[in-house]
Amino acid sequence: MRRGCGSTGLGHPHPAHDPGQASAREATLVARASRARSEKRGVDMDRLTRLVDDETGAATAEYVIATMAAVGFAGLLVVILRSEEVRGILTDMVQRALTVQQ
């Protein structure tokens, strides 16, 4: 087994010298190992990959989240604007804006 600079002992370049190659190689090895384990369990990896990559309904979910945030914000504004203190501040501001000073 070779050891030393430029080798991991497996005949591959040392990951520190080329991190891009190392991460791609590691990802490939992990994917192969995962596929092998899944095939032993009877899991159809192609179907599973299609299901995970499928984004059907993602836009709808995003709209639901945005709508719920808007409803929450509107509810907070209603609570704030119903307080007497805020109502007085707003009334005073409108009166000053509409009053003509001479």
TrEMBL record:
Residues 1-41 are annotated as: Disordered. The chain crosses the membrane at residues 63-81. InterPro entries: DUF4244. Keywords: Membrane, Transmembrane, Transmembrane helix. This is DUF4244 domain-containing protein.
